[in-house]
């Protein structure tokens, strides 16, 4: 009886630890293609520097800090001047591609730092000077 109970508990534990395949996040054009709110810009002038919050520096007007970015499966993107609208509008559009753990946005290469199908973090190396890094955090809407 003891062996049967241990066996049943072992099987139950094994199945309870298995992830549901629909919960897994695969990084590809389809999973990346959605609308995001841009929530953070951080900057490191050198690899050993601490990260600095650059959101307010790059976008001093509050109307620019609530925009959405929509990545489409056809390789286009649109920035929508959402929430508080700026004058002139902060809307924009362009092209993007995906390859492995990187994206190219309007010809500029980025690295996908992380992606969990809800939050996408990308970085641009040598953004303003050699050795620096700009990181952008986007949250799915």
SSE order and pairing:
Elements: H1 2-17, H2 29-32, E1 35-44, E2 52-53, H3 55-58, E3 68-71, E4 76-80, E5 92-99, E6 102-105, E7 108-115, E8 119-125, E9 133-140
Antiparallel strand pairs: 1-2, 1-3, 1-9, 3-4, 4-5, 5-6, 6-7, 7-8, 8-9
Quick tags:
disordered N terminus; 9 strands; eight-stranded antiparallel barrel; alpha+beta; 141 residues; 17% helix; single chain; Lipocalin; 3 helices
Give a structural overview:
- There is one protein chain.
- The longest helix has 16 residues.
- The chain has a single domain, classed as Beta Barrel (Lipocalin), CATH 2.40.128.
- The N terminus is likely disordered.
- Strand 8 and strand 9 form a beta hairpin.
- It is built from three helices and nine strands; from the N terminus they run H-H-E-E-H-E-E-E-E-E-E-E.
- By secondary structure, it is α+β, with helices and mostly antiparallel strands.
- It is globular.
- It has an eight-stranded antiparallel β-barrel.
- Helix content is 17%, strand content 40%.
Summarize the structure.
This protein has 141 residues and is an alpha+beta fold. The chain has 3 helices and 9 strands, in the order ααββαβββββββ. Strands 1-3-4-5-6-7-8-9 form an 8-stranded antiparallel β-barrel.
């Amino acid at each position: 009886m003891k062996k049967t109970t241990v066996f049943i508990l072992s099987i139950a534990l094994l199945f309870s630890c298995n992830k549901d395949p629909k919960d897994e996040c695969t990084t590809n054009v389809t999973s990346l293609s959605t609308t995001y709110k841009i929530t953070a810009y951080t900057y490191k002038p050198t690899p050993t520097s601490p990260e600095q919050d650059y959101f307010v520096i790059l976008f001093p007007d509050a109307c620019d800090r609530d925009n959405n970015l929509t990545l489409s499966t056809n390789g286009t993107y649109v920035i929508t001047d959402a929430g508080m609208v700026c004058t002139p509008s902060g809307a924009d559009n362009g092209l993007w591609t995906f390859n492995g753990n990187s994206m190219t946005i309007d010809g500029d290469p980025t690295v996908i730092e992380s992606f969990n199908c809800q939050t996408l973090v990308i970085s641009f190396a040598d953004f303003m000077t050699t050795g620096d890094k700009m990181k952008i955090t986007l949250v799915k809407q």
